[in-house]
């Protein structure tokens, strides 16, 4: 039987950057964003809605860039996404 996604993710480790590689640039666009797909597509639950703004837990990021694809306001500058500096970030143990 295949392992669950949660079990597979538990094999991963992180070498965290001290600075977030994901930034919410325009919270007003996020407030107006009705579907907020970033809350759904990220398997690591990096994005959460906190009363009136999007919060980002960049340390949990798996660098899949699902949010980058799903955010329909990305092109309008809602968020900035770059890989963590200096090769930091997630370390996949299973490829
Ligand atoms: S980050 Fe993008 S998808 Fe998420 S709430 Fe903001 S505009 Fe919407």
Automatic annotation (TrEMBL):
Domain of life: Archaea
A matching Pfam family: Fer4_10
One Gene Ontology molecular-function label: iron ion binding
Swiss-Prot/TrEMBL keywords: Electron transport, Iron, Iron-sulfur, Metal-binding, Transport
InterPro entries: 4Fe4S_Fe-S-bd (IPR017896), Fd_FixX (IPR012206)
Keyword Electron transport: yes
Domain 4Fe-4S ferredoxin-type, chain residue ranges per copy: 21-52
Record's protein name: 4Fe-4S ferredoxin-type domain-containing protein
Species assigned in the record: Candidatus Marsarchaeota G1 archaeon OSP_D
